[in-house]
Amino acid sequence: MGDSIKIEQAVDRAERAGAGHVPDPAQPRLLRDALGAFATGVTVVTACEAGGEAPVGITVNSFASVSLDPALVLWSAARSSLRHAHFSAAPAFAIHVLGADQRPIAERFTRGGLGFEGLETARNAENVPVIAGTLARFECITEATHEGGDHTIIIGRVARFCLAEGAPLVFSRGRYGAFIAD
Questions:
Q1: Does residue 53 lie in a domain region?
Q2: CA of 77: how far to CAs of 61, 121, 152, 180, in Å?
């Protein structure tokens, strides 16, 4: 095979790769991998079980600011989660932004984790369990929920917040890490 054919084939492959991919619900891995290239912070969202007082928590990275005035934030709950019904019905919740040294807290609230077992918490004015010592905490009243594909987007009005010094815990490409400032 001549060099010109090899070059032509390489150009064809590069052009096809540059054209991008079409999301395929039957094979979500490639899209999930592409989304994972975006580094996010790590949060734990807490609330009370629907119709009860038992605490419920979940580790999420789908947290974002919506508005400063009024103070609104959002996060997205997967409808496939066993905890979805609790969060989508919760009148109030707290979002805890984790620091670089708080990976064990994140792992408590993933599938199969310890959850609240042995973790010291308090209850805020809305009776939501709150975790002390996180990098930031936003105590919210549920403002609205919106269906968003396989997730429910939950918007909260910030009633109170706390802020501490430190570096954030970061998540990207399926792994935890830390932010390094220059």
A1: yes
A2: 10, 22, 5, 29
Give the per-residue pLDDT at 1. Answer: 62
The alpha-helical segments, DSSP class H, found in 75-175 are: 84-89, 103-108
pTM here?
A: 0.86
Whether the pLDDT of residue 149 is over 80: the answer is yes
| Domain that residue 103 falls in | 40-172
Residues composing the chain: 182
CB 92 within 8 A of CB 141: yes
Please indicate, yes or no, if residue 28 is contained in any of the structural domains. Answer: no
CATH code: domain of residue 77: 2.30.110.10
Domain membership flag for residue 74: yes
| Tens-place pLDDT, residues 24-56 | 888 888 888 888 888 999 999 999 998 889 999
Q: How many Cα atoms sit within 13 Å of 88 on the Cβ side?
A: 18
Residue type at 160 in one-letter notation: R
Taking alpha carbons only, the member of 49, 73, 75 closest to residue 60 is: 75
Query: For 104, phi and psi rounded to 5 degrees?
Result: -60, -30
φ, ψ for residue 109, nearest 5 deg: -110, 20
Question: Do 73 and 66 touch, CB atoms closer than 8 A?
Answer: yes
Is omega for the bond preceding 55 within 30 degrees of 0, making it cis? no
